[in-house]
C-alpha cells in the first residue's frame, strides 16, 4: 500500500508526501485538523488540508519569525503571539530570559490540544510560567489594547478561512495601537512566486505600509511551503531591521539555532529584483 | 483529461506539474529528452525525467550562476561553459561587452537542437559570434587546457548519468589548471535539504575545497528544484566573492536582471547554520 498526502500549491502544481499513517483527523469549530507521520518529514500538521508544519523543516519558519525581531529590539519584555497554536513560536521565545510575559491568542483550542498530544517538538513549552493562552479571535483580542506590547508576532494561516481577519487594515492598525512606542510587529507574509500568493503578499504589504512608518520584508527557504520561497514582514515604529540589529548582543546570548544567524539576518532582507518590484508596486 | 508530470524529489516526496501537452520526447546517445508545455511554468525541459528548467523560473538559476562571478572578476574576457546546452548561461554572458570569447562544451548535441527549436527563451543567443560550441565530454575537454580561462561555469546535471564526471576531483583539479592565475570557477552545487542531495553537495564541496584556495557557497530560491533551496559553488584562485565584489562597477553596466542584484549577491553567501555545518564537516 502507498498513502500519499498531496497539497495543490496552485491549481496546476501539486506537492506530495508519502505518509506512513494518519495519527489524527478531526473537525473543530473552525477547521479540519490532521496529523500524519511520514518518513521524509517526520510528523506533520495540516489545517483544512494545507501544510502548517513538519518536524523536519519547522525550525526554519519558527526561528525566522522570532529571532529576527528579537535581535533588533533592544529589550522586548512583553510579547503577543497571534495564531501559533502549534507552540513553535513559544518554544523559540522562551529561550530569552529578558522576556517577562507572553500572551498567546489562538482561535482554535483543538489545534493546541492536538499539538500537545502529537507534536511535542513544537508544543514543548506551553508550560512555561510566562505563557498565557487565550482562545479568542486575534482580530477581536487586539482591539482592546493600547501601548501594551514590545513585540507582536502574527503567525497566521493563509488569508482565507480563520486567518482572513489577520490580513486586514483594521487588524494591522490595531496592532500598531497595541504596540509600545518602539514596538515591532512581525508577520508571515506569504510567498512572492505563484501569482495567487503574490497577490495576497502584495495586499498584506500595502496595508502594513499604510499602518507602520518602517516596513520591510525578509525571506527564508521553507521547502514544504508553496515554492519554498517564503516571506516575512517586519513592521516597526522605531527600529530598523538592519541598522538596529545588535549582532554582538544577540550572539552573546549563546542561543542554539539551526537556521538563523546574524549574518543570515542581514542577508535575508536582500530580496530578488522581481520581489522588490512586487513590493514597490504597492508602496 | 488531466496530464501530470511528476518528479520524485526523494523516494518519499513528489512534485507534480499539470501539463498541457508534450512537445518533444526523444532519446539521445546520453539521455532521454522531453519538452512539455504547462500553464503554470510555461515550457519546461527534462532530462531522464529530471527537471532542468522551466520558462517561469529559469532566470533565477541562470542569473545566479553567471552574474555572481562576473560581478567579482575585474575583467573576465575568456569564459568556458560546461553543460548548459539550453543556452541560458550563454544568454546572460553575452550581455557583457567585455567578454571576447565563450567556449561552450556540451556532451549532448540533441539537447542544443531541441532547445533551439522549443526553448527560444534560453537558446536565443547561440548565434552570438563570440560563442563556440564543442560537442564533447567536459571532463575530457578540460584536460588539455592550461592557464586559458578567466571564468569556468559548470552548469552540470546531477552527479549521476552524463553529469557524473563533472563532480570528480580530477575534473575540479583540471578546471583549476585551465584557469588563469586569477580565475574563478562556479558550479551548480546541489541542495542542502534532502539527505541524498546534501551528501552529493558535501562530496562536491570537499573536492572543490581540496582543489581551490578560496571556496565559498551561495544560495538561491529555485522553486522547481528539489526543496527549492539550491546552492552554487564559488571557487577561486585569487578573488573573494564578497570582498572583491565591485558593486558600483557592476551596477554601472546597467544590465537588466529579474533576480540578481548586488545586495542579494552579498546576502546569498549568508547561509543557514545547518548548511554551514554540512560544509564545515567536509572542509
From TrEMBL, chains A, B:
Homodimer or homotetramer. One of its GO terms (cellular component) is cytosol. Pathway: Amine and polyamine biosynthesis; spermidine biosynthesis; spermidine from putrescine: step 1/1. Belongs to the spermidine/spermine synthase family. It catalyses: S-adenosyl 3-(methylsulfanyl)propylamine + putrescine = S-methyl-5'-thioadenosine + spermidine + H(+). S-methyl-5'-thioadenosine binds at residues 31, 106, 137-138, 162. NCBIfam families: PRK00811.1 (NF002010), speE (TIGR00417). InterPro entries: PABS, SAM-dependent_MTases_sf, Spermi_synthase, Spermidine_synt_N, Spermidine_synt_N_sf. Catalyzes the irreversible transfer of a propylamine group from the amino donor S-adenosylmethioninamine (decarboxy-AdoMet) to putrescine (1,4-diaminobutane) to yield spermidine. GO terms for molecular function: spermidine synthase activity. Transmembrane segments: none annotated. This is Polyamine aminopropyltransferase. CDD domains: AdoMet_MTases.
Amino acid at each position: 500500500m502507498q498513502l500519499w498526502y498531496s497539497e495543490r500549491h496552485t491549481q496546476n502544481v501539486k506537492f506530495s508526501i508519502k505518509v506512513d499513517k494518519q495519527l489524527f483527523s478531526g473537525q473543530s469549530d473552525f477547521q479540519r485538523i490532521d496529523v500524519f507521520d511520514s518518513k521524509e518529514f517526520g510528523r506533520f500538521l495540516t489545517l483544512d488540508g494545507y501544510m502548517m508544519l513538519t518536524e523536519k523543516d519547522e525550525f526554519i519558519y519558527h526561528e525566522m519569525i522570532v529571532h529576527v525581531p528579537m535581535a533588533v529590539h533592544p529589550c522586548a519584555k512583553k510579547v503577543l503571539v497571534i495564531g501559533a497554536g502549534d507552540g513553535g513560536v513559544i518554544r523559540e521565545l522562551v529561550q530569552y530570559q529578558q522576556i517577562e510575559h507572553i500572551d498567546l491568542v489562538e482561535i482554535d483550542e483543538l489545534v493546541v490540544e492536538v499539538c500537545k498530544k502529537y507534536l511535542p517538538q513544537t508544543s514543548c513549552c506551553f508550560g512555561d510560567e510566562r505563557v498565557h493562552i487565550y482562545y479568542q479571535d486575534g482580530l477581536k483580542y487586539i482591539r482592546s489594547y493600547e501601548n501594551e506590547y514590545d513585540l507582536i508576532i502574527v503567525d497566521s494561516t493563509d488569508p482565507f478561512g480563520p486567518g482572513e481577519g489577520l490580513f486586514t487594515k483594521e487588524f494591522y492598525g490595531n496592532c500598531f495601537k497595541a504596540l509600545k512606542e518602539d514596538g515591532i510587529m512581525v508577520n508571515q507574509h506569504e510567498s512572492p512566486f505563484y501569482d495567487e500568493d503574490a497577490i495576497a503578499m502584495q495586499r498584506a504589504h500595502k496595508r502594513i505600509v499604510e499602518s507602520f512608518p518602517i516596513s520591510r520584508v525578509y525571506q527564508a527557504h521553507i521547502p514544504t511551503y508553496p515554492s519554498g520561497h517564503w516571506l516575512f514582514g517586519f513592521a516597526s515604529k522605531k527600529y530598523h531591521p538592519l541598522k538596529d540589529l545588535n549582532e554582538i548582543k544577540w550572539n552573546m546570548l549563546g542561543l542554539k539555532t539551526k537556521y538563523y544567524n546574524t549574518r543570515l539576518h542581514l542577508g535575508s532582507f536582500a530580496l530578488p529584483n522581481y520581489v522588490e518590484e512586487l513590493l514597490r508596486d504597492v508602496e
